[in-house]
Amino acid sequence: MKSIAQLLVALAVLLSFTACNAQSKNVKTETVKIYGNCDMCKATIEEAGNRNKIAKVSWDKDTKMASLTYDAKKTSQDEILKRIALAGYDSDKFLAPDNAYTKLASCCQYTRAQKTLAKVDEAKMKMDGTDHSTPIMPTEAPEVDQMKPVFDSYFAVKDALVQTDGAVASMKSADLLKAIKAVKMEKLSMDVHTVWMKVLPDLQADAQHIADTKDAPKQRAYFMNLSKNMYALMKVSKTEAPTYYQFCPMANDGKGANWLSKDNAIKNPYYGSQMLTCGKTVETIK
User: pLDDT tens digits for 129-167?
Assistant: First the structure.
């Protein structure tokens, strides 16, 4: 019995060591410059960047340098710096929104430098002596196309429900899941990224539920919440054409439900041919 107990203890220690070793391989520590002035800035910067067991930020007010330690499987430097920028603090990679900066206490309003970087092709300069610098801004460039496959897949699910075609809705929702997973969060503009992080878990869950069944009534129940979160995302995204936010008062047991459409004409996804034109456009998103 004693030898079995010793064996179990040894096995537990081995498993613990293996788990700790695997976790340590995912941990990254990087140093970046974040602008600020005082101890109040330090508290805000660190609070904005920190995430329990995922990311730890330590900022020095004298050097303006921050040490970022994070689990690379769960977050990234960009995500940490974006959160800090949303709190009002510039880094050499992301600029804080003006409204976030102006909300800082007067002692925290650091001098904002003109942050224009130059990307230099040194080889060409050596060949002809010409400066081939390409001015770039270290702000995150909005990638409007990042959201387009997500919205297009949503509209395809909606069209399938208009036709009460559960099989097609299931297939299109599987496409929606792929589009969601393909989004490169680091390429989203700051306001889109903020909403995306809030709605992502529900988007994935509802899309998965719709993909998992071919029963149109069940799919429609999940489509209501899917549409609510898509609306929040659509409101902060830039699209080439207007989108229509529409409402059916009969859906959801008479409580009403909304959906998004590329067409102003009503084609109800909650009832299909039973009440195809039931509803109205309540908002045009441009």
Answer: 444 444 334 444 444 478 999 999 999 999 999 999 999
27: β partners:
71
Q: How many beta carbons lie within 10 A of that of residue 234, not counting itself? A: 19
Residue where the block lists tokens 């949303």: 86
CATH dotted code for 144-285: 1.20.120
Q: What's 31's DSSP letter?
A: E
- Token pair of 237, please? 């995204």
Per-residue pLDDT at 119: 31
Separation CA 223–CA 220 (nearest Å): 5
Distances (CA, A) of 56 to 18, 28, 49: 23, 10, 7
Q: How many CA atoms lie within 13 A of 249 on its CB side?
A: 4
Fold designation for 26-139: Alpha-Beta Plaits (3.30.70)
Nearest to 54 by CA among 72, 42, 40, 67: 72
**In the numeric block, which tokens belong to residue 160?**
């399938």
For residue 25, what pLDDT is reported?
72
